[in-house]
Amino acid sequence: MIRRDIRRGTVFTRRALLVGGAQTLLLGGLAARLRQVQVEEGSRYATLAEDNRVTARFTAPQRGRVLDRFGAQVAGSLINWRALLVTEQTVDVGRSLDNFSAIVPLTDAERARIDRDLRHGKSFIPILIKEYLSRDAMTKIEVNAPDLPGILVDAGTSRTYNYPYELAHILGYVAPPNESDMDGDPLTALPGVKVGRAGIEKFHDLALRGHPGVVHLEVNAVGRVIRELDRTDGLNGDDIGLAFDVGLQLAVQKRLGDDAASAVVLDCRNGEIMAMVSNPSFDPTLFATGVSQAQWKEWTKDRRTPLINKATSGLYAPGSTFKMAVALAGLDAKAISFHDRLNCPGHLDLGTSRFHCWNKAGHGSLDLHQALKYSCDVYFYQVALRTGIDRISAMAHRLGMGTELDIDIPGQRVGQVPTRDWRLSKGHPWELGDTVVSGIGQGYIVVSPLQLATYAARIATGRAVQPHFTRRIAGAMQPGSQPEDWPDLAVPEPMLQAVRSGMFAVVNEAGGTAPRARLAGPAHLAGKTGSSQVRRVSRKQRESGTFDSKNLPWEFRPHALFVAYAPYEQPRYALSVVVEHGNAGGTAAAPLARDIMAEVLRRDPASRQDDEPAQVADAKS
Amino acid sequence: MIEQRLWLKSPHDLTGKIFRINWLFVLLLCALATVGYVALYSAADGSPEPYATRHIVRFAFGLLLMICIALVDIRVIARFSWIAYAVGVALLILVLKVGHVGKGAQRWLELGGQQIQPSELMKLGLILALAAWFHRANWERIGNPLFLLPPLIAVLVPVALILKEPNLGTAMITMMLGGMLFFAAGVRWWKFVLVLVPVPFAAHYVYQHLHDYQRARIDTFMNPESDPLGAGYNIIQSKIALGSGGMWGKGFLQGTQGHLDFLPEKQTDFIFTMIGEEFGLVGAIAVITLLILITWGALLIGLRCKHQYGRLVAFGIACNFFFYCFVNIAMVMGVIPVGGVPLPLISHGGSAMITMMVAFGILMSVQVHRDVEFANSDND
Fold first, then answer.
1. Of the candidates A200, A174, A443, A168, the residue with the CA atom closest to the CA atom of residue A289
2. What is the distance between the terminal CA atoms of chain A, rounded to a whole angstrom?
3. Which residue of A has its CA nearest to B264?
4. Is there a smaller number of Cβ atoms within 10 Å at the N or the C end of chain A?
5. Is B310 on the interface with A (CB under 8 A)?
6. pLDDT, tens digit, for every residue of A462-471?
7. pLDDT beyond 70 at A293
8. What is the mean pLDDT of residues A276-296?
9. Do B78 and B374 form a contact (C-beta atoms < 8 A)?
10. Least Cα separation, residue A97 to chain B (angstroms)
11. What is the reported pLDDT for B104?
């Protein structure tokens, strides 16, 4: 009995020692492993630990507003109330969502998207349930908060345009940044941030963006915020004050109607753009929500090209509106004088070619004033021949045509007023015939409506103004709003005056080509018509006697152009109007120019007291 | 009848008993609890609240409880072995019926404002019951498979109940604890081999029936880097914290990972990581050494005991303590899957502390009553 118990005791002792030894070895093994982790791989983990701790998270600033001359907002930020779901804060996600949809209905598609997000998301990263909530819906959500565990309401921002369709070409639009926008600005990496894609939004993108705030957070490796360490508030984007009058803009837009037409109105003393319309336009807010295939097709198939800002990117042969440039070039080169009279027999023969005047009967003998008034082609053929293309193009460039302008929206097309060298560079010699047609703004010459308006403004004031929108940034006046900010055009005043009086005659004297542009009131408008051929008219057609461009298919009809400024005696506003395929400038464009100029003078935005910086600040708060 | 009365009579008076308590062992426990105080002070960002004070108060209470139990005759305790076991099983059944659900498992019982985890009481009950059973067994009966059947069932019933909670880790620890007692009681080697052969098949079967979160734990354990933001997160963070501690540690209260809350459950399951980060390899190995000393202390108490019941109880308690320590440390180092096992006397948590101190009380009773006359029934 005793022996048995001793046997049992020795077995226990043996086995207990065995187990104890094994346990010691196992814990020793852990210690060895610990040595490996802590000492041999220690530095690697130390680096990881440092990475672990603090992360900088940027808070998106509010994008600056865009205001018109009088402080009226044309682009702003709308608070976008969103309902978010944090799944870890609710026991029953389905119940929370059911209760939510009882208050704010969710479509099946929204529900499906939420389910998809739920499957892929982490439990502490909020999932968007619904955005653009109404005030009413928000109130209901707040009131029912106890029934909606895990659901919270959050304020984001979205861009809003007060006149999306009317100002699309000026303001452009915003869109989520793509890779080429990732310019190192940390802002572009923020969720929900959008960058300017066109127009003012793009040109002033950096100012409008503002600076992101930085919040240093302690987070764990899953990005879950543990606590906030410090916070630097961001700076909201600057408000951009534009020179234009939104009321005028809308009026011009309305007057141009649905035709493919554009108009630019400048303050001719400083180049501020009072209105810039390119019809038809488009609604850029559709880009934010996604443009349907059908809508995109409609825009791109429309021959009136709604997506293109014709005012800056449409190029047209200036036609007869170019004649002032030819005249000034001729006068400046002393190829003609004010009173030189040239004969117009209805055509000009050059070698075997015959160049017609629009008036087949001819204008007889006329001086510069009369030549402009009647828009005699043959007179300007001869001036062009006397002056030479290089001097004409130099003068045209000086007047703002065929040259890059300092316009503050992207996308302008420069067009061209050719030189001999340009033609040679294309492998052809310049021919005299090319000079002849250049005298009436045809041939290789193409310019934009913006250039035409600039051209009119420079003739009117003799200053090399540049067209621009920007008047204030964050309330501060920008240079360029005073006439003295702009250099002299360096064209002698008498020459300019000669051309101006010709433009006066076009509208206001008997026999002028644009009596329809005459203003009803006391003020006088000086202007010039133009027709820009889009297809060469053959001699056969011309001699058949029945040719009338009105009978051509729409896309072959010439464009109708008109440039003008007013008042004649004290020039204040310059404009250009281009009606695509509108036939003759005198009939299609001149009445538009008259009505627009009447509206401009009635409103007279440049003379009205605009907002003081203080008021901008007030409006901001 | 006479013998019955005889073995109840203690050979020692109260003073003698107090002198027979292994005070060196108590000192080791105090050292461990002090490590716990320091670590919990740090876990609360350098504050005794809310963990450290409560921890040390609980330990003081546990120490008192332990000494009281140590003075109770081991033969009296032995009488309650199966009752303790039955209470443990009853609580496990109760927890399945009314238990508090935490992290996808029913493990906790609310008892007078205190949450208790019946599986911890169960392990102690199982040790006592198996010790009582094998105490009766002489060398011949140990070889009889029929004699081994009841204790086998006694192991499998709580294991099955714990699995149903479900708590795979504790179930496996309970199973191994039972196996260790079988082994110490003298069950033949080949019988263990016989039982262990079907284990891989059983493991496969169990894996198939695991909960997703349990399977994720095992899968993540196999390759923690595969899902650094998901289930592998705890292990990776723990390793980062340990590794960044280096040889000498970042210093008391200087650990970044723990204080920046990268460390999950730093006051409970991952307290060892906290120690490793702040006190480095040196501190961690010091703690491991302390744990080895305590394990050996318990084993030595068993080795010096003259009766089988005391030997087995001491051995079982030593093994139980070892399992806690090994599983916890191996877990935070990513050596075995995360199991929700606290580090004894260091981790914050009331029920584990009290259970552990009760176990040490019984252990100390074995120490005090190591040479009492405690005959097994076969010797009658």
1. A174
2. 100
3. A220
4. C
5. no
6. 999 999 999 9
7. yes
8. 82
9. yes
10. 23
11. 46
CB distance B243–A42 less than 8 Å? yes
Identify the domain containing residue B262 by its residue range. 2-379
Q: Any CB–CB contact under 8 A between A14 and chain B?
A: no
What residue of B is the nearest CA neighbor of A49? Answer: B240
Residue of A2, A37, A91 for testing the chain B interface, max B β-carbons within 10 Å:
A37
What Cα–Cα distance (Å) separates residue A69 from each residue in A274, A470, A472, B58, B199? 9, 9, 9, 76, 85
Q: Give CA–CA dist B221/B236, Å, rounded.
A: 10
| Gyration radius of chain B's alpha carbons | 21
Q: Which of A70-74, A369-373, B142-146, B194-198 has the highest mean pLDDT?
A: A369-373
A6 near B CB under 8 A: no
User: How close, in Å, is residue A306 to chain B by CA atoms?
Assistant: 49
Min mean pLDDT across A163-167, A335-339, B105-109, B153-157 is at B105-109
pLDDT of A533 above 70: yes
pLDDT of residue B197: 79
**Residue from the list A16, A42, A45 with its beta carbon closest to the beta carbon of B315:** A16
Residues of chain B in contact with residue A9, where contact means CB-CB under 8 angstroms, are 306, 308, 311
pLDDT confidence of B107, banded at 50, 70, 90? low
Contacts with A24 from chain B: Cβ below 8 Å? 292, 295-296
Q: Which long-range contacts (CB under 8 A, 24 or more apart) does A190-195 make?
A: A190/A58, A190/A60, A192/A60, A192/A156, A192/A157, A193/A60, A194/A63, A194/A159
Question: Cα-atom radius of gyration of chain A, to the nearest Å?
Answer: 36
Minimal-distance CA residue of chain B relative to A47: B244
**Does A49 sit within 8 Å of B243, measured CB to CB?**
yes
Taking an 8 Å cut-off on Cβ atoms, the answer to whether B292 and A49 are in contact is no
All residues of chain B having their beta carbon less than 8 Å from the beta carbon of residue A37 are 239, 242-243, 333
Determine the pLDDT at residue A101: 87
- Indicate the SS3 state at residue A196: strand
Q: What's the gap in Å between the CA of B302 and the closest CA on chain A?
A: 8
Nearest to B303 among A13, A45, A226 (CB): A13
Q: Which chain A residues are Cβ-neighbours of B260 within 8 angstroms?
A: 52-53, 218, 220, 226
Residues B289 and B274: their CA atoms lie apart, in Å, by 17
Residues of B in contact with A220 (CB under 8 A): 233, 237, 260-262
Alpha carbons A599 and A608: distance in angstroms, whole number: 14
Count structural domains, chain B.
1
Least confident of A177-186, B151-160, B217-226, B275-284: B217-226
- Quickly count: other Cβ atoms within 10 Å of residue A182's Cβ: 12
Helix ranges (DSSP H) in A465-621: 493-508, 539-544, 590-603, 613-620
Contact: B261, A41; criterion CB under 8 Å: no
> What ipTM was predicted for this assembly?
0.87
**Residue A618, pLDDT score:** 37
Q: Report CB contact under 8 Å: A26, B183.
A: no
Tell me the sheet residues that pair with A263: A277, A577
With 80 as the cut, is the pLDDT of residue A179 above it?
A: no
Q: Rounded to 5, what percent of chain A is helix, strand, coil? A: 45, 20, 35
**Chain B window 192-251: which residues touch A at a Cβ cutoff of 8 Å?**
228-229, 233, 236-237, 239-247
Nearest CA to A30 among B311, B68, B188, B322? B322
Q: For B4-45, what is each residue's pLDDT tens digit?
A: 444 455 666 788 888 888 899 999 999 999 999 999 998 887
Q: How far apart are the C-alpha atoms of A119 and A319, rounded to whole Å?
A: 65
| In contact, A484 and A453? CB cutoff 8 Å | no
Read off the tokens for A111. Answer: 């529900």
